[in-house]
Specification:
Order of helices and strands: EEEEHEEHEEEEEEEEHEEEE
Structural class: mainly beta
Shape: flat
Number of helices: 3
Largest sheet: 8 strands, mixed
Helix content: 10-25%
Number of strands: 18
Strand content: over 45%
Amino acid sequence: MTMNRSIFTAILVFVFSSGFFAQDGGKAASHQGAVQEYEILDRPRAPYTNAARQNGVEGIVSLRVQLLATGRIGRVTPVTSLPFGLTEQAISSARRISFRPRMVNGKPVDIIINVDYRFTLYYENSDSDITTKVAITSMPPPDIRRSEIIPEAEGRIAVEVFFGADGRVSVFRYVSPLSDEQKRKIDEAVAKIEFRPAIHKSGKPMSVTKVVDYEVD
C-alpha cells in the first residue's frame, strides 16, 4: 500500500510565553494601550520524511519559537518531538516563518510563542484505495461577494480542503487567487463544513484532501 502524499495540517496555535493565545491565522486580537500584537505573515509547511511516511508516524511537534524585534526568527527549541526527522522538519519550517513583531509604545520587542506542527498521513479523495469518498453534508458559503473576486473567476472560488478521519477540517491549499482578507473568510467558511469521513479499503476512516467550489453571488 502506498500513500499518494503526506502533509502536516498547518500550525494550530500560537502562544505568548506570558500565556496569551492567538488562534491559527497568527494575528493576536488584543490591542490594549500602546501594545500592538505580532502578526504571522507566512507559515511554511513542514513536509514528511520518507522514513516517517514508511513507518506511518503521525503526531505533533511542539516548538518554542523566539520572534525577534528585528523581524527575524531567534531560538527554536523543541518541547515535544517525533522520530524519523519530523522534529528537524518542523524546526526548519519554523525558522522560515515570516511575521510582524510585537510593538510596545511604538517599538518592536522580542517575544516567545509556542508553535505546534501536526503531521498527518492522508490520501487524495480520488485515490482508488478510498472506497467511500468523503461526503459533505453542510457547506455554508463564505462572506464574500461576487464583485470582490476577479471577473475571470465567474463567481467561483476553488479551495483544496483537508478532511480528517477524526472530523477535523481545514484549508489545505487556496486554488483561486485571493487576498489575505478573502483567505480569512474562506478559512472561517471551511471551518463550518460538516462531513462524513472517507473510508479506506481496509474499512477504516481515512484523512483525505478534496477540491471544493464555492459559488458566490
